[in-house]
């Protein structure tokens, strides 16, 4: 192996882990017919002149399996929170009760379940693309080192290391997608 070239595989792993973490966050926002506070994480409210996560304008609770409540701290923001939820694409119809917004989680019908599995598939594909972009960056570093005098054997070694790492992470994405799709389709 070349003494002067060492690929930073820890950096590649860290970036691929970031893509997986982002995928898990996106998956958490998908409704599976059960109430979850995390389903509101991607929803942003126009509060005080900037876009703010819901959990920073009120308390999010899950009092029962099919109900999420948001106790909005500032009465003037109740309408904006309700509007943000309606426009979020979650398919939930908020109900107001003073400063408390109740979100009854309806049963998912078969058609909606299929739509959600497709959305999960899109999220997974975006994650795969991110992982492949990290792979490409690693391969570019290897090509640059090859141009700077790295031996062909070293080049092949590092390329196979990067490819093995990529394959491991793509497999994790596929497993996470399969698990999420089973969870969504479960009645």
Automatic annotation (TrEMBL):
Compartment annotation: Cytoplasm
InterPro entries per record: Ribosome_recyc_fac, Ribosome_recyc_fac_dom, RRF_sf
Pfam families cross-referenced by the UniProt entry: RRF (PF01765)
Keywords from the UniProt entry: Cytoplasm, Protein biosynthesis
Domain Ribosome recycling factor residues, every copy: 23-185
HAMAP family: RRF (MF_00040)
Family per similarity comment: Belongs to the RRF family.
Keyword Cytoplasm belongs to the record: yes
Protein name stated in the entry: Ribosome-recycling factor
Organism: Mesobacterium hydrothermale
Record function comment: Responsible for the release of ribosomes from messenger RNA at the termination of protein biosynthesis. May increase the efficiency of translation by recycling ribosomes from one round of translation to another.
Organism superkingdom: Bacteria
């Amino acid at each position: 192996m070349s003494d002067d070239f060492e690929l930073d595989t820890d950096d590649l792993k860290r970036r691929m882990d970031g893509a997986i973490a982002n995928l898990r966050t996106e998956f958490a926002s998908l409704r599976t017919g059960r109430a979850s506070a995390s389903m509101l994480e991607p929803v942003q409210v126009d509060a005080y002149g900037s876009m703010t996560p819901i959990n920073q304008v009120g308390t999010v609770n899950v009092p029962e399996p099919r109900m999420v409540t948001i106790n909005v701290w500032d009465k003037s923001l109740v309408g904006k929170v309700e509007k943000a939820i309606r426009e979020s694409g979650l398919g939930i119809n908020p109900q107001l009760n003073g400063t408390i917004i109740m979100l009854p989680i309806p049963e998912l019908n078969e058609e909606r379940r299929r739509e959600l599995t497709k959305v999960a598939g899109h999220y997974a594909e975006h994650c795969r693309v991110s992982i492949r972009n990290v792979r490409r960056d690693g391969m570019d570093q290897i090509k640059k080192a090859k141009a700077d005098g790295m031996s062909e054997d070293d080049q092949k070694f590092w390329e196979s290391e990067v490819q093995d790492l990529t394959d491991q992470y793509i497999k994790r994405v596929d497993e996470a997608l399969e698990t999420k799709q089973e969870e969504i389709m479960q009645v």
